[in-house]
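Ticket #4471: structure export looks truncated?
Reporter: QA, pipeline team
Priority: medium

Steps to reproduce: submit the single chain below to the structure queue and open the exported record.
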Amino acid sequence: MPFRIESDFPLESDWLPPDAFTQVYVSATEAIDVALEGVQDPAFQEVRVVDVETGVVVWRSTDEAD
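Actual output as written to the record:
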């Protein structure tokens, strides 16, 4: 399944290229790793990994704070 990264916050990284946050990833784990690099505080700045085919959120950074 392909996965994409979403956030209501700007996603940027000092070491990843800007298109890293707009790519489609084959692995949810890889998408999560990249997503975590995109925000300063993922517990408060929600970033999501979404299944491209279904639109279902498979991971949400703010869920980790619970």
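Status: closed, not a bug. The export was complete when the record was re-opened. Leaving a note from the reviewer for reference: The chain has one helix and three strands.
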